[in-house]
Design a protein that fits this description.
Elements: H1 3-17, H2 20-29, H3 37-57, H4 60-84
């Protein structure tokens, strides 16, 4: 693995992992009142486009980070709808 790929993978882990504290907070409080549904819908659409781009350019870091991000964002949206009924 070259240095640039390693940097990409670490960057992907950090940015993708940034959704985990939000999920933990929502689940522990059983509330997503302060979570913006619109923001997560917009970022989700962007992540899907990044995923398509990663597939197109055949970039493992872009593909992995965005595939996992889409899953985590979907989970946040699901929790938002479950707990706040929006």
């Amino acid at each position: 693995m070259d240095l640039i790929t390693a940097i990409g993978l670490v960057a992907g882990i950090l940015t993708t992992g940034s959704f985990i504290p939000q999920i933990v907070k929502i689940m522990s409080h059983k509330s997503a009142e302060d979570v913006s549904l619109l923001m997560f819908l917009i970022i989700g659409c962007g992540q899907i486009l990044w995923l398509v781009y990663g597939i197109y350019i055949n970039s493992l870091p872009v593909l992995l980070a965005n595939a996992v991000s889409v899953l985590l964002i979907s989970f946040v949206i699901t929790l938002k709808l479950r707990y706040d009924g929006h």
